Each structure stands twice: as C-alpha cells, then as structure tokens.
Amino acid sequence: MKGHDMHVLILGAAGMIGRKLAERIAATGKMGGQTVDALTLVDIVEPQVAADFTGTRKALAADLTDAGMAEHLIADRPDVIVHLAAIVSGEAEADFDKGYAINLDGTRALFDAIRAVEGYAPRVIYASSLAVFGAPFPPKIPDDYHLTPLTSYGTQKAMGELLLNDYSRRGFLDGIGIRFPTICIRPGKPNKAASGFYSGILREPLNGQEAVLPVGTDVRHWFASPRSAVGYIDHAATLDTAPLGGQRNLTMPGVSATVGDQIEALRKVAGDTAVALIRHEPDPTVAAIISGWPRDFDTARAHDLGFRAETNFREIIEVYLEDEMG
Amino acid sequence: MKGHDMHVLILGAAGMIGRKLAERIAATGKMGGQTVDALTLVDIVEPQVAADFTGTRKALAADLTDAGMAEHLIADRPDVIVHLAAIVSGEAEADFDKGYAINLDGTRALFDAIRAVEGYAPRVIYASSLAVFGAPFPPKIPDDYHLTPLTSYGTQKAMGELLLNDYSRRGFLDGIGIRFPTICIRPGKPNKAASGFYSGILREPLNGQEAVLPVGTDVRHWFASPRSAVGYIDHAATLDTAPLGGQRNLTMPGVSATVGDQIEALRKVAGDTAVALIRHEPDPTVAAIISGWPRDFDTARAHDLGFRAETNFREIIEVYLEDEMG
After folding, report:
1. What is the pLDDT of residue B190?
2. Within a domain: residue B16?
3. What is the DSSP letter of A85?
4. Nearest Cα residue to A190 out of A215, A165, A213
5. What is the ipTM of this complex?
6. Are residues B20 and B148 in the same domain?
7. Residue A174 and residue A241 in one domain
8. C-beta atoms of A149 and B165 within 8 A
9. Shared-domain flag, residues A74 and A147
C-alpha cells in the first residue's frame, strides 16, 4: 500500500480477535500481503506480546479516552490502525455512560487525533457490528439496509460508522468498517452472553462435555470462524478503498445456519456421541433476546471486494479443530 | 399530553422557523392543541420576545455547548423542547470542529442534561434534515432508506437521530425527529446558499424584482412552506409517540416539484409579467451541488401520524402571499 514496510497498531489487542490477529502477524510477518516491521498492541490491560514477531514490538496498557492518549498512541504514525477496543453489548446497555465514553468518545478521540496530524491518513479498520441493524428484518439483509440499532451498543457502533464515512470523505483517514458475524466456535470457557450457546453446543461436546441448548433447533443466525474474522482484517489492511465510495462499512460474508444445521455438522464431524451431549433446556429469556437477531445477509459487496468466510458449518467446526485442538 | 398547561422551550428561536413558531404560539396561546402557559426562547443571539404572548415568557442568548448551560436551560423542566439550534450545512462543511461541536456535542449535552434529571422525560422535537440521505437515490425515498449522508452536517444530523432513538428507547426523553423539506418561499432577502434560487425565483418576481435561475427547469426537488414547517412542530408537540416504536425520525410530507412546476405555479398566481422577471443564467457549480439532492419521498408514515403539508406549488405560493405580503 505504502511501498514500505508497515507499522500496525492494534487497539483492543487483548480480546480474542486482537490476540489471534497479532499471532497471525507474528507468525507470517505480514498483513494484507505486505511485510510488517513494527507491531504495537494496546488494550486496557497490557496485551501479551507476540513473542515470535521479529520486527519492532511494543505492548501497553492504555485507555483511549484518557486526555492525550489517542495522540500518544499514534505518535509514531502507524500505517494501519485496527480499532477493536469496545465495551460489549451487555455492558454498554448496563452502563450507559461507559458505553458512550468508550465506544463513541474513544473512537472519536482516535479519529480526531489522526485528523490533527497534517498529511497523515492511515488505514483505519473499524470493528463494527450486526447490532447496527435491528428487527424487523427482510429475509436477507442487504448491505444498504437502514441503521436501526435496538441497543445503546448498536447505536454507538452506528455512530462510529457514520464518523468513519465522514472522516474518510474528508481525507483525514482511510477507513474500512467491518461488520463481523457472530464468531463461532469461540475458544475457551462457557460465558453468560445470550449468544454463548452458539459456540457452547459445539465446543463442549467436541471436548467431551455436556452443553445446554436454550432455544429451538429452527433458530437461524449468522456466523463465521475466528480465523475468518482475522482474515477480514488482514484483507482490509491493504485493500484499495476507491471502490467503496462514501460507504466505508461492509457486512462481512458468513454462514446463515440454524441450530439444527449446527448440530448436523457436529454429527458429521464428531458423531452421535457428541450430539448426545447437547441437553435441550428451553430458556424463554434467551429465546426472546435472540428472536430480535438477524438471520441472513446479502454480502455481495464485501464478497466482490475479496472478503471471504466459510461456506457451511462443517468448515466452521473444522477450523476450530485445526486452530484450537491441534 | 400532561394534563396541565405546557411550558415550551425553543432552542434556535432566532432562526426563521423558530421565530414563526414562537409567533404562532403567541398568537394562539396553544401548541398541539394544548394551552401554553410559559415560553422560553433561546438562541446564540437573544431572540425577540413574542410580545403578544400572555403567559410567562423569557428570552436569552446562550450557547448550548457552554459547560452547565444545557442543565441551566432545562432547570425549570419545560414539557416540550424544540431543538432547532444548528450550524447550517455550508458552515459545518467549512468549519469541521464547529459543526461537530454544535450539531453533535450540543445535541448530546441537551439530551444528557435531560437524562440526568430523575423522572423527567420531556417531549423533545429534534430538527433533522434530508441531508441524512445521500445519492444515489431511488425515485421515491422511503422513510426507512439507509442513512448515507454526504456532508459533515448530514453526518451530525444522522448521529443526532440515532441518539434521539436511543435516549427515547431508554426512557430518558420522548423524542420526535423531523426531517424538514426545503422550505419555500423563504421570506426576506436573497442569500448565497446553493438552494437560494428555489425561493428567489418566486419571491423576487412576486415583489416585482428580477431573479436569477442557475439550473434547468427539469430539476426536481422537495418542498414545503414555512407555515407547514411550523405545523409539523406544532403537531409533534402532543402526538402519541407509541406508534413510532424505536424509529423516532420521520420524513415530513412535502411537494415534489420541478423548477418548471414552480414557474407555472407562479404564472397562475402572478401572470406572465412575473415569470418574465426570471433570468435563466446557468451556473454549473450550483447545478453540480444540487444534482446530489433528493427529488421525492414516500412519507406515508408521517402522513398516517397526521403530519401535513401543501399538495402543490400553487398552495406554497399562496401561503407566502398570505403570510408575508398580507
């Protein structure tokens, strides 16, 4: 992109995607096909340094909303900034001020720090969310569906998308917004997020443990693997943004699948014994929450730009086996 | 709405719509069919007090973005707050910081001041804009068309719409966002806005003066009279917001008309002599700017909620004759 080796800054580098992205850069020495010679990892807690990275590396604990912090973080002018730092949906709903402070003000502080530097317009990869959309939905949600967030988190992400468009249009930065599918299979332990079961009903049985399914098997949702999530960011790092025009935010390709599809894919990969570990235990609260979630997307725009994901759930499970179970 | 007389606060009361709204309230003593017993007018310069208003009236010069000002302005808990205060499109594009400071931060300061008061959730009427939409457009833009602002002003207004939805959903305020058509015929002198000719080619000939038309007669746009603009706000003051659900922002009814339609309406009202005062003088700069502007809207949603405007351009001209030329 720039004709020289790249300096990459990852904000929110201690999260699952941030860690995997840093590991990939460390392992390959590249991002978007180009050599990375410096990698700076930032999160609210100090992220683990990618030990096998041979370029210049830094890791620091920082809060983007502290006065002067955004300016400090871009002081050595990274070529690519991956902005994953965010308060998640549940917390942004529970703590109104904190959600707006981090998700809106933090994003704006970063963009304004970049804007203040004359002649500096780095690639900024902004982590957006399907939460910018809200029910009622058409069967397949197009990229240009209207923004109707039904949560404060979704509102903050939608406002960030609008800022990304405006700051890019004005030439202050060169933004790409990535609307991630629900990431599946998340590695690690079960969590209490309403979406937790989507990973749990596969991950736990694959590890010989019981899992609870709180909804019916006909429930449909939109998925991609952690590997695909990292792949989107990698692809966005050096993509030509000219074809994006004024609309910098893209719904990423993914797999539309029912819980039943998930279970049948699990059966193919790990057999009936694994499937038998799924205990059906309907939870009306969880069912009510996810009834407002999107089911399917038309992602022709991102696909035409070269973004890719898995095409069925079996592939998503196989990525987990390869990347997490060796 | 509240079962008692209303206190109305108008922010941006020195502008054309704000003045006309205050005059209407003063003349009728009512808003949304309900008695107004207190009227507070605020603008960056002290607005004229509506002298014939018999209730409690106040006028003050204030900047919404000054620390503590929003809190001060709502200290006596107005029932209806009309938020018209804004930096206009051209200035928001020329002065990036000022546009975001007033249009975004000022709006948020107001909403946050309201949120901080326990048990207070006033009706907030937010002046939005067609600028939240950007080309390319369908022939008729629906109310749920995606937000694609192509200016910083439009971005700021779209962010305000999202905040209005979220703060209303959380119960902090009871918002209605009004996307105004281009107001025509604006009273007063010619101005240098790109849209100025839309009023000028009617207003100047009606006053026996020459006017310049910088574009072709086939150019189509979306209009309503100043009287309709005030009518929207009046109607929004006491409207039941329950049917709005999570989507509080409404494109208002208006008249889709070509410049040719405008001229023929002028001919009917004021004859060939008036039309002869329009001098065709093509200006490619103006033509380029307005080529990105919307032409027509589907406003079924606002119409079903009882919002009304003129239905043809002759009516728009007659409103000017009645309201401005006695």
Report:
1. 83
2. yes
3. -
4. A213
5. 0.95
6. yes
7. yes
8. yes
9. yes
Asked if residue B104 and residue B27 are part of one domain, the reply reads: yes
Query: Does any CB of chain B come closer than 8 Å to the CB of residue A169?
Result: yes
B166 interface with A at CB cutoff 8 Å: yes
Residues B67 and B204 reside in one and the same domain: no
> Considering the domain boundaries, does residue B304 fall inside one?
no
> Which residues in chain A have their CB less than 8 angstroms from residue B157's CB?
none
Task: Report the pLDDT value the prediction gives residue A166, as an integer from 0 to 100.
Answer: 98
Q: Are residues A58 and A189 in the same domain?
A: no
Q: What are the residue numbers of the active site of B? A: 153
State how far residue B107 is from chain A, nearest Cα, in angstroms. Answer: 14
What are A266-325's pLDDT values in tens digits?
999 999 999 999 999 999 998 988 888 899 999 999 999 999 999 999 999 999 999 999
Q: Kindly list the residues from chain B whose CB atom is less than 8 angstroms away from the CB atom of residue A158.
A: 162
In tens digits, chain A (326 residues) has pLDDT values of 445 799 999 999 999 999 999 999 999 999 999 999 999 999 999 998 778 898 999 999 999 999 999 999 999 999 999 999 999 888 999 999 999 999 999 999 999 999 999 999 999 999 999 999 998 899 899 988 999 999 999 999 999 999 999 999 999 999 999 999 999 999 998 877 888 999 999 999 999 999 999 999 999 999 999 999 999 999 999 999 999 999 999 999 999 999 999 999 999 999 999 999 999 999 999 898 888 889 999 999 999 999 999 999 999 999 999 999 98
* B152 in contact with A, Cβ within 8 Å: yes
Determine contact: A146 vs chain B, CB below 8 A: yes
pLDDT reported for residue A3: 55
Interface check for B158 against chain A (CB to CB < 8 A): the answer is yes
User: Of A120, A126, A153, A232, which one is the catalytic site residue?
Assistant: A153
Identify the CA nearest to B130 among candidates B95, B198, B182: B182
* Nearest CA-CA partner of B66 in B110, B30, B31, B33: B110
Distance CA A50, CA B126 (A): 49
Give me the CATH number covering residue B212. 3.90.25.10
- With CA atoms as reference, the chain A residue closest to B142 would be A146
CB contact under 8 A, A148 and B96: no
Structure confidence at residue B3 (pLDDT): 55
Q: What range does the domain containing A150 cover?
A: 6-180+226-251
Q: Which of B31, B22, B95 is nearest to B52 (CA)?
A: B22
A126 tagged catalytic: no
Same domain, A290 and A242: no
- Inter-chain contacts counted by CB atoms under 8 A, chains A and B: 54
Question: Which residues does chain A have within 8 Å of residue B165's beta carbon, measured at their own beta carbons?
Answer: 148-149, 155
Asked if the peptide bond before residue A185 counts as cis, ω within 30 degrees of 0, the response is: yes
Q: Tell me the chain B residues in contact with residue A144 when contact means C-beta distances shorter than 8 Å.
A: 146, 148
CB of A253 within 8 Å of a chain B CB? The answer is no
Contacts 24+ apart (CB under 8 A), B157-160: B157/B86, B157/B103, B157/B128, B157/B129, B157/B131, B157/B132, B158/A162, B158/B128, B158/B132, B159/A159, B159/A162, B159/A163, B159/B104, B160/B103, B160/B104, B160/B107, B160/B126, B160/B128
Please tell me whether residues B158 and B291 are part of one structural domain: no
Token readout for B291 is 């080529």
The domain tally of chain A equals 2
Q: Is B163 on the interface with A (CB under 8 A)?
A: yes
Query: For residue A118, what is the domain's CATH number?
Result: 3.40.50.720
